Amino acid sequence: MRDHDAIQRFADEATLEPDHIAHARAHALELGAEPVSPAVGAQIAVLAAATNALNVVEIGTGAGVSGLWLLHGSPRATVTTIDNEPEHLAAARKAFQDARIPPARARFITGRAADVLPRMNEASYDIVLVDADAEHVIEYVEHGLRLVRTGGTVLVPRVLAGGTVADPVKRDPVTVAYRSLIHETQASPAVLGALSTVGEGLLQLTAIAGR
Question: Which of 38, 39, 66, 98 is the most exposed place for a label (fewest CB within 10 A)?
């Protein structure tokens, strides 16, 4: 366990976060909007870059940290970000402005994801990031897999639930939801799934043909 903790700490400390994202992180923490860790942010940036993502949906804006990481990986992308907290959306909008992200690259939607997602076009997005309402994560991932094109990817940070998913004794609703999501998607013929344990964890689900 000690070796694992040391590896985690090294991975976290080795990640260099761009200044504009670090500033957004500081503001997010002031608001109580817990952002993704730099290690997870770097992973989603790499995935955005590797897939040349142009159309991205973010469920859970926070204060703009994850959105900025996605655009760091794919500067030509357009991010549609959904949150039911106007204060968080306002902070994200300011963070994007401070980072000189062109207004056309970001669309901010205030509302409940459960109300917004059914109205979005299926098979139209390259990446869907799910980082909101953990108890509804399975529902949001189902929407995400409907929204991404074949070859598109749904990303779910925090999926390790602070380590509780590995403890079979833990049966709270959030832990059970994340644990079920991991098991169900690993067994699904509709996706290729990979679980990263860096930072707070990141589940990566790529939609494959024939789903």
Answer: 98
